[in-house]
């Protein structure tokens, strides 16, 4: 994953620019003729310990001569030159002109690291000035041993005495100074990462081996004098980094008083509300829910007792005044409303029409959806994640487009992780294995359009020297022959990667071990348990531009599987790997891998539905079976359901709306749940009508009875899904569109085509014709057994009537049901609050995907977080505000409107001096952007910011500074002059500067102090020198060159106007191991940027490559609740309009809400996260909940008798259809999904669908009947015309 590599870790440091630069300062040689032995050293004021130039070592490093001469008075020119660098040295000195030139040439390498903090730089220079030129050198330096070099005695070791306070103050003034381009500290370079002054002094005093950087003689820093009382440890003045005269920025000196008083802008985390109850500390929400639940139970118990007494008294008077099926005088049925009369009349007439003209109705109703299916010619599937889960109005999407357009797209990542599960991986054999693997990768070739593509053709190569491969092999310059043994040098480079030239990478930049190793604690790199090899590859904005990279990635993955994996396993190690295109390819494979499982699931549901609707006769005679079965009717109904789905897809495809895999997987499931339920209700309702009625009358009565509830459910579902189009997330919005259209078409087909099929099938059965051979007719008497028979559905009806209904009518059972369901509802509310947003990457991949192990290894071994950029829009670097303002006012002379002039004045006043609002060196604002980022990194647990930011602006200002006299230089002709260790200033041999050419002898610094205003360049100076900086190569003499490190960090398009359109400052998140970490880190970065933008009056936003995919989780709760609430409101409105009863609408909506909340509670129990998939399922659950609730409630409403009798009648008539049409159908299909290869189907379809079906069944057929029996709405008579009532009455008597 692209979380472990630093894009701009490509800084060129000639040889690490660390202690060697500083320690070479110690090369202050003495003349051979003036040498003296250590025993002759005089420790007194005015005496030297070393003086003059002396010999040199075999590797060319010059050596000092032990010389106890008196300090020498320099000539006036030398004195002025010494004081320009060493203002504390005056009068006599202990250094010659050559010594001083050596000192000056060496400190120039360290100055760019420290110039941003003047106090540290001054202290650092004073330290070496005292050491080299102090007239009292002998008081704190003892030469402890000498050696012969060129037949001359030279210094081989010294003792340097300092006070402990001096050492601590010197270290404290420099310990926090940043080196921005590598997001690290300057101490890593000038002190080897020292953590205290003792380590710093030990680093600077270490004797360098031949040809290795460092001091030519050993220096032992001592804080106690045990030899002679004449020694006076150095206790020179040390400036605090918070000193007002030499003040450093808060980023370089967070301990200063000014910074301590400047509180960082950190994200505020709301602590979860808890209540202390003895040893228990429950959440406030849990406690309140428990109190409400207990209070509700008490209130309901009191109410139940009072109602029981009333009913007992009433029962004594008229207990047997009514029988079941007759109207209860205590529950008089209301007359149907005008709306219900109108609906019943319409459906009755429609039923008569369909029964008389089935074929025309069937043909017309099927032709229209078939025409819609023609839109499939434009069918396309959207698989791009950003087009599915990211809103077009997404901030992350706009920010990524801005970043890619104005800066550069984030690079592509190809990665190998080699792990040793049993211990240390840094061994000789394992490093040799790395070289073997690297050789195979280097030799790898891909074929793209007939051209051979190698890694070097596509890799990130910031300086054109070598690929920026992140591997510990960089410590060996990717050359297996450079060392005979590897472990010792690797361990050395782990500690000195930023300071030793021998550890420098082939792309001329220090390599942080944390980017190439994994599984270590703290900085204990030598005990790492994993190698992390990363190949950054250039990324283009278009897919076509990345075609070469994609071709190479394919062969890279093949190489890893077929060759590298066996090599790694042979050494007892594990391998995981990934490429930039791996996830997309594996997701595509996942979508096809489970196609068979999904197909089997639907086939099983089809088979069950077909058999369920079949009408197997009770006598089981062959003739009755051949005539009465309804297998073709069931199969036709299933085909109509699928036709509605295909027609919906075709309709939107015609208009260019792309489908998604979610549509293919979820909508058929939803359409079958709705359609099959309606088919069962229609068939069973027709069969319940009196057989002595003509078929037209039976169909008319049946559709008048069932139509209102089917319409109520259908319109509620359509509207509930349709409102989802307001949701910005494309996947949810597209699903809502397709689902609403599919349900609507399905509803129309049920009321037209399927109704016509019922008429045709009943005619066939009544004529005695065989189902599969309709032209064959049997004897009607032999086949008449189909008219009054019991079938499988009848058995369920009998169960509902004889057992289920009476059981729920029991008062104790009611009390238990209400208590249990209410308790689970409140529990689910509490559990829902614990529902975590996110979608684990491993879940969406096939179980056998090679990426499963890769993501596991990332979590286990990775110790580096993803880069995060703080992007500043329209940075105004204009410094000469007044002249620019006057120019603008002159240009506006022709503008009469005073308000426009005033507006421009305000704009300029806001934009002025933005440089100090951003930078973090001296004279920058204490609350500047970069200082605030540094402060935030000190609280990494809450801010998720791991390091200070790399700042091109800081480095540019330092590079421009006259103090950094080897950086910004110019020839006499005013053109750019590079540092002395770069061509054409010196001759280059294999990338190394050998001898000076003299070309740059006349180069001068770009500016004097007097040329700058308050240490800042003017607008014209900024404009002129910024391109120089970005093209300047970093080297030993000037490590601040911007080429490579900052090439893509700012957009110079149109910057001549004084405004830089986009500039980025890179830092890192802390390691992110969980989905919640990604979400929380993005939320923290955005909150932080928002507050910065407000306080600095600048437009700032954070950007990281993963933000676009995790932004949805910032608002996923809002998305879910908005969709669910709107859907439930739509259900309530439709129910209230069609039933003309707010009571009924409230019950249906309330139970649907309970189903959704309980499903969310079960999601928490099962560990299912809240994401787009689960939101779609939650929205779908409303549709399923309506099916479970509407039909039972409608049947209860039109039944007569007391509430218990009406509840039993509703269960016996509609309960069987709901149970067999929804519950059993879904169960047989869901079980198959358990065997899917991808966990996403197991988690979000098997587990969640199974939970939905069980919860819906329990609420629809257990809780809802009990609730209706207690607080159900009053009954309403069905509207039946007088002539049909007479026929119905005769039919009932006849029956």
Outline of the structure:
One of its GO terms (cellular component) is membrane. Belongs to the patched family. It contains 43 helices and 21 strands.
Q: What secondary-structure arrangement, pairings included, does this model have?
A:
Blueprint (H helix, E strand, L loop, with lengths): L18 H5 L26 E7 L5 E5 L9 H10 L11 H18 L3 H16 L7 E9 L2 E10 L2 H11 L3 E2 L4 E2 L1 H4 L6 H9 L12 E5 L34 H4 L23 H35 L19 H19 L1 H16 L11 H5 L5 H12 L5 E8 L8 H15 L3 E3 L2 E3 L1 H4 L28 H10 L20 E2 L11 E8 L9 H24 L3 E5 L3 H12 L1 H19 L8 H7 L2 H24 L6 H28 L6 H28 L7 H37 L13 H4 L8 H18 L1 H22 L17 H12 L5 E10 L4 H11 L6 H14 L2 H5 L10 H9 L2 H4 L8 H9 L8 E2 L5 E2 L8 E4 L2 E5 L7 E2 L13 H13 L27 E10 L6 H22 L2 E5 L3 H4 L5 H24 L2 H25 L5 H27 L4 H31 L5 H33 L10 H13 L1
Parallel strand pairs: 4-7
Antiparallel strand pairs: 1-2, 3-4, 5-6, 8-12, 8-13, 9-10, 11-12, 14-20, 14-21, 15-16, 15-19, 17-18
Helix pairs in contact: 3-4, 5-7, 9-27, 10-23, 11-21, 11-24, 14-17, 19-21, 19-22, 19-41, 21-22, 21-24, 22-23, 22-24, 22-40, 22-41, 23-24, 23-38, 23-40, 24-40, 26-41, 27-39, 27-42, 29-30, 38-39, 38-40, 39-40, 39-42, 40-41, 40-42, 41-42
């Amino acid at each position: 994953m692209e979380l472990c590599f630093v894009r701009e870790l490509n800084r060129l440091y000639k040889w690490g620019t660390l202690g060697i630069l500083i320690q070479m300062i110690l090369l202050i040689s003495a003349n051979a003729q003036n040498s003296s032995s250590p025993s002759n050293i005089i420790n007194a004021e005015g005496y030297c310990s070393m003086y003059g130039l002396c010999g040199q070592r075999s590797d060319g490093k010059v050596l000092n001569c032990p010389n106890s001469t008196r300090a020498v008075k320099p000539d006036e020119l030398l004195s002025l030159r010494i004081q320009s660098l060493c203002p504390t040295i005056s009068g006599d000195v202990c250094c010659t002109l050559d010594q001083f030139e050596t000192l000056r040439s060496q400190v120039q390498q360290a100055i760019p690291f420290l110039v941003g903090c003047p106090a540290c730089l001054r202290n650092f220079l004073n330290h070496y000035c005292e050491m080299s030129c102090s007239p009292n050198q002998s008081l704190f330096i003892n030469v402890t041993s000498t050696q012969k070099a060129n037949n001359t005695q030279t210094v081989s070791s010294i003792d340097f005495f300092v006070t402990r306070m001096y050492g601590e103050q010197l270290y404290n003034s420099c310990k926090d100074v940043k080196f921005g381009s590598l997001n690290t500290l300057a101490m890593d370079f000038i002190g080897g990462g020292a953590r205290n002054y003792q380590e710093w002094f030990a680093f600077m005093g270490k004797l360098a081996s031949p040809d290795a950087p460092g001091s030519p003689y050993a220096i032992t820093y001592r804080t106690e004098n045990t030899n002679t009382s004449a020694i006076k440890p150095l206790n020179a003045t040390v400036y605090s980094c918070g000193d007002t005269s030499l003040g450093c920025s808060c980023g370089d000196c967070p301990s200063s008083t000014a910074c301590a008083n400047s509180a960082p802008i950190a994200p505020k985390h709301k602590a979860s509300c808890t209540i202390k109850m003895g040893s228990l500390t429950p959440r406030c929400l849990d406690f309140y829910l428990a109190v409400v639940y207990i209070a509700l139970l008490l209130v309901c118990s009191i109410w139940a007792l009072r109602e029981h007494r009333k009913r007992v008294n009433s029962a004594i008077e008229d207990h047997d005044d009514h029988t079941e099926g007759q109207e209860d005088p205590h529950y008089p049925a209301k007359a149907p409303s005008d709306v219900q009369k109108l609906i019943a009349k319409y459906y009755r007439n429609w039923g008569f029409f369909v029964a008389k003209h089935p074929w025309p109705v069937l043909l017309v109703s099927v032709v229209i959806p078939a025409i819609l299916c023609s839109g499939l010619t434009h069918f396309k599937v959207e698989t791009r994640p950003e087009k599915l889960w990211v809103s077009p109005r997404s901030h992350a999407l706009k920010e990524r487009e801005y970043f890619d357009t104005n800066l550069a797209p984030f690079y592509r990542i190809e990665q190998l992780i080699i792990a040793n599960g049993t211990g240390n991986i840094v061994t000789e054999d394992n490093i040799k294995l790395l070289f073997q693997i690297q050789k195979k990768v280097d030799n790898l070739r891909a074929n793209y359009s007939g051209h051979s593509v190698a890694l070097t053709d596509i890799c990130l190569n910031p300086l054109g020297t070598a690929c920026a491969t992140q591997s510990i092999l960089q410590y060996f310059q990717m050359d297996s022959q450079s060392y005979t043994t590897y472990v010792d040098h690797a361990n050395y480079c782990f500690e000195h990667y930023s300071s030793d030239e021998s550890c420098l990478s082939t792309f001329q930049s220090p390599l942080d071990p944390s980017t190439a190793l994994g599984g270590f604690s703290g900085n204990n790199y030598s005990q790492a348990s994993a190698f992390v090899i990363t190949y950054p590859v250039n990324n283009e904005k278009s897919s076509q531009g990345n075609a070469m990279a994609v071709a190479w990635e394919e062969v890279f993955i093949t190489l890893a599987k077929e060759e590298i994996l066996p090599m790694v396993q042979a050494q007892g190690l594990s391998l995981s790997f990934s490429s930039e295109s791996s996830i997309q390819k594996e997701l595509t494979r996942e979508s096809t891998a489970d196609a068979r499982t999904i197909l089997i699931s639907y086939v099983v549901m089809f088979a069950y539905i077909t058999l369920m609707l079949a009408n197997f006769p009770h006598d089981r005679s062959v003739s009755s079976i051949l005539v009465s079965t309804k297998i073709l009717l069931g199969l036709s109904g299933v085909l109509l359901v699928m036709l509605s789905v295909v027609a919906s897809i075709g309709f939107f495809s015609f208009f260019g709306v792309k489908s998604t895999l979610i549509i293919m997987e979820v909508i058929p499931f939803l359409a079958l749940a709705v359609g099959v339920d309606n088919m069962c209700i229609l068939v069973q309702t027709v069969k319940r009508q009196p057989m002595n009625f003509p078929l037209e009358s039976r169909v008319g009565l049946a559709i008048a009875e069932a139509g209102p509830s089917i319409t109520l459910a259908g319109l509620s579902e359509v509207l509930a899904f349709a409102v989802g189009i307001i949701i910005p997330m494309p996947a949810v919005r597209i699903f809502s569109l397709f689902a609403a259209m599919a349900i609507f078409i399905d509803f129309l087909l049920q009321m037209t085509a399927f109704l016509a099929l019922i008429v045709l099938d009943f005619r066939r059965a009544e004529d005695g014709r065989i189902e599969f051979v309709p032209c064959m007719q049997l004897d009607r008497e032999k086949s008449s057994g189909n008219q009054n028979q019991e079938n499988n559905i009848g058995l369920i009806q009998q169960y509902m009537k004889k057992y289920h209904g009476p059981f729920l009518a029991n008062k104790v059972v009611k009390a238990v049901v209400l208590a249990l369901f209410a308790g689970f509802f409140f529990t689910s509310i509490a559990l829902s609050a614990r529902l975590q947003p996110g979608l684990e990457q491993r879940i969406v991949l096939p179980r056998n995907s090679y990426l499963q192990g890769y993501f596991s290894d990332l979590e286990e071994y990775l110790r580096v977080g993803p880069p995060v950029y703080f992007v500043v829009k329209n940075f105004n670097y204009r410094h000469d505000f007044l002249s620019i303002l006057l120019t603008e006012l002159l240009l506006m002379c022709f503008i009469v409107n005073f308000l426009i002039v005033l507006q421009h004045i305000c704009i300029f006043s806001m934009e002025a001096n933005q440089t100090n609002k951003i930078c973090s060196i001296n004279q920058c604002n204490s609350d500047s952007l970069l200082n605030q980022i540094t402060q935030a990194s000190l609280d990494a647990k809450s801010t998720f910011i791991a390091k200070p930011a790399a700042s091109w602006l800081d480095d540019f200002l330092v590079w421009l500074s006259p103090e950094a006299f080897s950086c910004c230089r110019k020839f006499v002709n005013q053109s750019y002059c590079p540092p002395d260790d770069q061509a054409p200033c010196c001759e280059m041999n294999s990338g190394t500067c050998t001898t000076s050419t003299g070309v740059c002898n006349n180069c001068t610094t770009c500016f004097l102090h007097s040329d700058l205003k308050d240490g800042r360049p003017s607008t014209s100076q900024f404009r002129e020198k910024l391109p120089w900086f970005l093209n300047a190569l970093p080297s030993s003499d000037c490590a601040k060159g911007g080429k490579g490190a900052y090439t893509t960090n700012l957009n110079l398009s149109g910057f001549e106007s004084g405004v830089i359109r986009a500039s980025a400052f890179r830092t890192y998140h802390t390691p992110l191991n969980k989905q919640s970490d990604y979400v929380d880190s993005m939320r923290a970065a955005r909150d932080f940027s928002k507050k910065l933008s407000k306080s600095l009056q600048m437009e700032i936003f954070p950007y990281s490559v993963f933000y676009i995919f995790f932004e949805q989780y910032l608002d996923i709760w809002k998305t879910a609740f908005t969709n669910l609430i709107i859907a439930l409101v739509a259900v309530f409105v439709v129910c209230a309009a069609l039933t003309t009863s707010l009571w009924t609408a409230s019950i249906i909506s309330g139970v649907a809400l309970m189903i959704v909340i309980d499903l969310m509670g079960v999601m928490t129990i099962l560990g299912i996260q809240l994401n787009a998939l689960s939101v779609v399922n939650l929205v779908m659950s409303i549709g399923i909940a309506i099916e479970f609730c509407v039909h039972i409630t409608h049947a209860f409403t039109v039944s007569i008798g007391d509430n218990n009798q009406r509840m039993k009648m509703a269960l016996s008539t509609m309960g069987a259809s709901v149970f067999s049409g929804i519950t059993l159908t879904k169960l047989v299909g869901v079980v198959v999904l358990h065997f899917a290869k991808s966990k996403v189907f197991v988690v979000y379809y098997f587990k969640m669908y199974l939970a939905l079906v069980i919860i819906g069944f329990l609420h629809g057929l257990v809780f809802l009947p009990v609730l209706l029996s207690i607080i159900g709405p009053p009954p309403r008579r069905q509207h039946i015309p007088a002539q049909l009532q007479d026929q119905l009455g005769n039919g009932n008597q006849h029956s």
